[in-house]
Write the structure tokens for this entry.
Amino acid sequence: MDKQIFINLPVVDLQKSADFYAALGFVMNPQFSDNQAKCMVWSDHIYVMILTHDKFKEFTQKPIYNPDSHISSLYSLALDSVDNVHKLMEKGLQDGGKEPNETRDLGFMIQRTLEDPDGHTWELFHMDFSKLPS
């Protein structure tokens, strides 16, 4: 079996979240989706499982944090161009996302921050290795 990553996120409104991730280009895998969870596929190796709070609680005894006021992690998506960083950001903003920070230009990397409707934080970036400082 190939190495894969499944990121599991608790969400308040499952359909709203599924629509948000679909707008970003994720594709829903119906084999692992139902009325409590949606498997959103980014690539052959990267999956985001969006789960209702009740479903998420089946996997942990800890309370679910409030991502509007606390952060526990950042998820980063590498994109193949600066233009695609901006396009993906615009799609996310149009479908309920928020941009909490200004665009960061580090010379060799452009980075934008996008929060999904539940406040989960994604870093969209493009890195130009030819511009890396030596």
User: Anything to note?
Assistant: Strands lie at 5-11, 27-29, 37-41, 46-52, 75-78, 104-105, 109-115, 121-127.
